[in-house]
């Protein structure tokens, strides 16, 4: 008769058992540390999140709601549905303001981008002096209101030093801010003067990321500075340039301060940009519902332009690496 032998039960060594018991404790400790890090992160994020909700998210949602109402601060908001949007579509002043704004944006973005790119390339290729960079940034440290007032005095038709110089060289005085033809280009160039240094430094930071080896190799091959600019600098600077364009376009559509202190929308609504028209509708005529509808329309336009720019410029991709 055969008796089946059974193997003795396996036993873990004492050290192994201790390790087996210690592993869950290690995991629990790690999870506790992660939760602690999460709480600490929440504490640091809370002030910024509170500011975002109070000063951005809530006013945006409130403005969207008011765009469907008739509201003048003196009476409760009255729901009117799409009436404000229908009025906006049929409002010729709204379309004129949008046209003026687009004209300003085209001039401002075109001149500012070209000038900033030229300054950034010169800073990178010729000198990297910190003092020179500080001088370039100086106009940006001035507020829009101060910059507008300074240029208002300089360009005054009768007493401005700018027109005094023009008159001294035998040219007729130019009503820069009092003529329908000159007003918007003048305001655009004032803002170009103020912002071009900041934009140039953003592009300069992007240029710093381009390896010098590429320029040295191109020089060995006999490439000129102009050819290196188009074949090396522009393709590799494209992501940074795309982000800068998105920022400057959004900022240009929101122009208000310079117009308010120089022309107040005149002459003959020639500088009545959309933001100034919205401000006048809300705080001049107390039509907060209609002003909110135009603000929502501007938000939609800027969102669409941003998405289109991001896709066309491939801002999320780089040719480096």
Query: How many extended strands?
Result: 2
Q: How many separate helices?
A: 12
Shape: globular
Please state the average pLDDT score.
86
Helix and strand composition category: mainly alpha
Q: Biggest sheet, open or closed, and with what strands and sense?
A: 2 strands, antiparallel
Query: Which range does the strand content fall in?
Result: under 5%
Low-confidence stretches: 1-10, 14-23
End-to-end Cα distance = 77 Å
Strand order of the largest sheet: 1-2
Helix content: over 70%
List the helices and strands and how they pair.
Elements: H1 14-66, E1 69-70, E2 78-79, H2 83-89, H3 92-125, H4 130-137, H5 144-154, H6 161-168, H7 183-208, H8 212-220, H9 225-253, H10 257-262, H11 274-284, H12 288-313
Antiparallel strand pairs: 1-2
Helix pairs in contact: 1-12, 2-12, 3-7, 3-9, 5-7, 7-9, 9-12, 11-12
């Amino acid at each position: 008769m055969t008796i089946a032998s059974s193997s003795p039960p396996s036993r873990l060594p004492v050290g192994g058992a201790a390790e087996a018991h210690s592993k869950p404790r290690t995991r629990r400790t790690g999870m506790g540390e992660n939760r602690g890090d999460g709480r600490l992160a929440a504490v640091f994020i809370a002030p910024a999140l509170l500011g975002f909700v109070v000063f951005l998210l809530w006013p945006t949602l409130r403005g969207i709601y008011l765009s469907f109402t008739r509201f003048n601060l003196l009476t409760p908001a009255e729901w009117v549905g799409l009436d404000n949007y229908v009025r906006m579509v049929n409002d010729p002043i709204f379309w004129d303001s949008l046209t003026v704004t687009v004209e300003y944006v085209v001039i401002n973005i075109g001149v500012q981008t070209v000038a900033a790119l030229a300054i950034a390339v010169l800073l990178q290729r010729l000198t990297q002096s910190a003092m020179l960079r500080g001088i370039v940034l100086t106009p940006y440290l001035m507020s829009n209101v101060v910059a507008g007032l300074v240029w208002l005095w300089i360009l005054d038709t009768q007493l401005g030093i700018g027109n005094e110089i023009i008159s001294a060289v035998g040219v007729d005085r130019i009503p820069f801010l009092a003529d329908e033809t000159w007003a918007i280009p003048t305001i655009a160039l004032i803002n170009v003067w103020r912002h071009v240094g900041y934009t140039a430094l953003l592009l300069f930071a992007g240029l710093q990321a381009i390896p010098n080896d590429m320029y040295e190799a191109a020089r060995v091959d006999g490439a000129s500075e102009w050819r290196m600019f188009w074949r090396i600098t522009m393709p590799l600077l494209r992501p940074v340039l795309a982000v800068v364009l998105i920022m400057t376009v959004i900022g240009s559509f929101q122009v208000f301060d310079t117009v308010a202190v120089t022309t107040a929308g005149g002459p003959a609504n020639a500088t009545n940009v959309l933001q100034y028209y919205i401000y006048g509708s809300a705080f001049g005529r107390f039509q907060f519902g209609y002003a909110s509808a135009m603000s929502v329309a501007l938000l939609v336009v800027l969102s669409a332009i941003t998405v289109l720019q991001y896709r066309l410029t491939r801002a999320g991709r780089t040719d480096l690496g």
